[in-house]
Each structure stands twice: as C-alpha cells, then as structure tokens.
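The protein record quoted for completeness.
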Amino acid sequence: MKLPISNVVALYNILNPAKLTAMSTGDKFKVIRVLRGLRPVAREWDEFVGDTKKRLAPENVAELRKLQKDIGALSEAERARVQEAFGEWQRHVDECLSSAVLEEREVAVEPIGESAVSALLESNPGWDVSEIDIVDEILNAPEPVDGENGAES
C-alpha cells in the first residue's frame, strides 16, 4: 500500500501505544503486522526530522538554549530576541519538512477489516475523532478490484 509519510507516521503513533484487549488473537496479530510494516518509515522520518533540526540549527544554538533556560531573568528585548531566533529556526525546519511529509512510501500494510477496526476502537475508547478517522481510513480501506483504476466509463 502506498501512503503519504504523514499518514504512515500518524498511524504508527496511534497504533504503537494502542491497547488490543477487545480484539481476537488473529486480529491482534493483524495489528502487529501493520505496526511492523509502518515502523521502518516512521523511524526513518523521525531520523530525518532530527537531522533536519540539527543541520538547520543556528550557529549560536547552545547560547540560545542557555538563555531559554533562564528566560525569566531576561529583559523583554532579550526574550523577544531568543523567541524570534527559535521561531526563525522552526520556520526553516517546517519549510523543509512540509514537502517531504507529503511524499508517498510503499508500506507492507494491508487493511484489517471492519470488525477488526471496530474491536480496535472498542479497545481504545480514549481516541479522538481524528485518530479514529486515520485508523478507519487506512485500515478499513476496501481492497481494489483487479483492473479497477477509479476512472468512470
């Protein structure tokens, strides 16, 4: 299955701490296989984000971090300067990551079916609607029919 990196990371971050208590043994193994398929891309992304932050860090990042720890003791102008420096750094990181996160990756993930998704949701009552939507959209996706390309005749 081909998915944008953003969806891979989101689904991995939702499923990794998920409880599987209301699921059958077979469905639990389906979720575990999904996690195995997502893990390499999620870890690669985490490394990429870390490398990006490191490489785009301002030359005086150590000084800025020290000032940030003592932010309460700084003057208003110094606080503004520190906050602006961190904000500028974050804008550069976000700009770099914004296009990369949309790239698609092939992941070894198969839909697990509606009953397994329902049991997964029952096992995790604390999930919010956006988390449920991601899980349902990816793991309850219908299998494409051979030769079907989505175009209408």
The helical segments are 5-15, 25-56, 61-69, 76-100, 114-123, 129-139. The chain has one domain: 2-139. The two ends are 25 Å apart (CA to CA).
